[in-house]
């Protein structure tokens, strides 16, 4: 699948940025601009998200293959990569299957493990999105009012509604492929495939208030990524990069610059 992307600069090593579930490259625009001061940055929309094409199937092997195809199109033989949540798993999967493509990896608040808790917030979010009567929505305020019954947190509601777009002829619609994401959601909770460890530098950035990376995940993280380091960002949850943007940027840039002339 040919992914949509935005290139922010043409200087330094290539840096690929991958968003999380229900997100898009635009959610990372401010970070991409900051990283672009030192690196050739590409913000990417993963399949079924943002401006990238829709498909019935979605899993980490397919998404990693999509990113690999994009790197080939761009002529990138090796890059740095940053991925948040679902995007972090895509980046880890690509690192495990094609380690030569990634020289340094930053994984934001996700582990390479299966997540089995069916009571997570994603299910409630999808339920709310599917419950919206798009034909009756006049504006975003209407949509947010309907979504509030399913998603209590205001910041999360506004994040989800970045996917709501207006078609001049048909009215409001979801930009992402909600049905494919819902139908394949169990695949997005699975552990990664690959037994050969990725030996290069990896930084896991965890929000102190988030439950996505536990101490019980440490053995699996180090088995697959033996050179991994962990940074914990205080007063931040799962959306570390949006809750503590300047702290996150410093952590990321310090890691990417380690051992480099730049």
What does this structure look like?
The protein is built from ten helices and nine strands. The protein has 262 residues and is an alpha/beta fold. Strand 8 (202-207), helix 8 and strand 9 (228-233) form a beta-alpha-beta unit. The mean pLDDT is 94. 34% of the residues lie in helices and 18% in strands. It has two domains: 5-114 and 190-257, Alpha/Beta hydrolase fold, catalytic domain (Rossmann fold, 3-Layer(aba) Sandwich); 121-183, no CATH class. It has helices spanning 29-35, 60-74, 86-97, 121-131, 140-147, 154-160, 178-183, 218-224, 240-243, 245-257; strands at residues 5-7, 14-18, 40-44, 79-84, 102-108, 164-167, 171-174, 202-207, 228-233. The strands form two sheets. A seven-stranded mixed beta sheet has the order 1-3-2-4-5-8-9, sandwiched between helices. The chain has a two-stranded antiparallel ribbon with strand order 6-7.
